[in-house]
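Quarterly update, task 2.4: 5-O-phosphono-beta-D-ribofuranosylamine-bound model.
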Amino acid sequence: MAKLKVAVLISARGSNMQSLVHACSAPGFPAEIVCVLSNNLEAAGLKFAAENAIPTRVIDHRDFENREAFDAKLTEFLASIDVDLICLAGFMRLLTPEFVNRWQDKILNIHPSLLPAFKGLHVHERAIESGARFTGCTVHFVRPEMDEGPIITQAVVPIHQTDTPEALAARILEQEHLIYPLALKLVAENRVKIHGAVVLIEAADEQHHALLNPKVEGF
Ligand code: GRF
């Protein structure tokens, strides 16, 4: 079967993009990264992509008059390279409804909380301040409203009493690097079915159950 052609959109570090690149390099993985695109020429992830022989492209949002014009350029480019799926990985631009609807059910995002809790920015500080015992991370389909959309994979991460936002972010990031490749694999295998707000995963095996509901250390 042909591999799913994926573009990964980044704005900075790109560690989630790296986890997707590593996953795609495994023999038999059902997706390939055909482009890493950034709105920021300085994004550190671009160097990694280039070193790994992945085509890169910069489309700087500051070169456009408004959001609509920037998004139209993104669509033009992504369509020209014939992508099947767009993975947002730390892409710090809000996307217009026109863009999201043009790529309906073809955009994934990763967010460092257990959605629908803690949408938006500064999620780690807010999670700690809330007094919640657990937070985590989520991969979901993108809808026009920010951090909304059917959830594909999640991982739970405990909040320690002594946690700083940085320490918590680092533990969540480790889980992000597991659940994004897993979500991509499930989508590429065509095992992810959207039923309204809910995703059903066909033939979820033991390993997937384990990753979707990880055991908490020490319990
Ligand atoms: C991650 O925490 C991701 O969940 C959020 O932005 C951060 C990006 O990190 N959307 P990286 O660029 O993938 O390292």
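Highlight for this quarter: The CA atoms of residues 36 and 208 lie 27 Å apart.
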